[in-house]
């Protein structure tokens, strides 16, 4: 076992994490007793009163109370166990009024899961409390026995700790070998106790996450709503960028071209040479405007990507990078057009970062694209100065790219140690 592992095992009994988990189990019993008592009393009362209308609001009140218990339990897991459990979706009534509110509570699956937790957690809390306290007390008692066994001969008529007594025979822990063996047993129990406690708290983590957290469907809906917002914002930003590029680039040149052609027409009869010179200048403006339009179209969705796929399109992007780039694309077929476009955009953005931020130390870069299962994997690396990171909330750069990739259920991972270059891995769904 590595040195760090040995020190971790030996230090576990006095580690802050162990004390927090032990406190979680100790506090869990009185809290669970309150939850169980109030929940079982409320459910029994509500069920008994269902023959009248009074039972309905009683059951609704019990469910609301149990959701309050869930809020306390999630906070307890967060503070003592370091867990992160998402809050369930709030209960919303479709119509105003007390009856609609009660109906929404009674139809809420989350509220009934909170009630179930309040009922079944009690026996588990009793078990966890008893086991954790027994292991903890026995372990430290036996481990420290050499320090306090003298209490028996000094203040009682016993030579040591009595293990058992049978008629005229009694067994005491009083010899040096027995004291040493007791200390060894205590050491083993003390070292095992943190892992027993950890296993018991793991059950609590699973229960809180499964019964008191948000449902997977609700989380997925929330995630899709967030991704939809990212897509809408990204599309709006792209439209503004295209409008700005057209206004400041091709449109401005076409306006200048119109003015030049107008002057040429006016001078055609009076000064043919000046008119020819103006036509030549207008011809140059047309070439520049066409090139700008081609660049703009290539930034949106290049024709080479549509016609020849990722290999050719990424090779074209790599040829414009400030450092030499090796491109390796190994795909059995072409992915969905949207995924292909996202892959092209991701590589373009990453190679632009290589050109701008790799530093003088960058001698080259690599682009690798392959398929793994039903995922498209892209890895872009360079040997520059490193230190890149995804600054959440930045809206641009790697943060903006991560948001775009996440909007199509993709993942972006950055590995960029200072002075050791940067490797960015992008994983996208295949969706052929």
Notes on the protein architecture:
By secondary structure, the chain is an alpha+beta fold. It has three domains: 4-212, no CATH class; 219-300, Up-down Bundle (Single alpha-helices involved in coiled-coils or other helix-helix interfaces); 305-429, Histidine kinase-like ATPase, C-terminal domain (Heat Shock Protein 90, 2-Layer Sandwich). The protein has 14 helices and seven strands. Helix 2 packs across helix 8 and helix 13 packs antiparallel against helix 14. The longest helix is centred in the middle third of the chain and has 52 residues, at 216-267. The two termini are 47 Å apart. 26% of the residues are buried.
Helix/strand layout:
Blueprint: H1 3-11, H2 16-48, H3 55-81, H4 98-107, H5 109-143, H6 145-148, H7 151-155, E1 161-166, E2 169-173, H8 176-212, H9 216-267, H10 272-300, H11 303-308, H12 310-319, E3 325-330, H13 337-357, E4 365-372, E5 375-382, H14 397-407, E6 411-415, E7 422-429
Parallel strand pairs: 3-4
Antiparallel strand pairs: 1-2, 4-5, 5-7, 6-7
Helix pairs in contact: 2-3, 2-5, 2-8, 3-4, 3-5, 3-8, 5-8, 9-10, 9-14, 12-13, 13-14
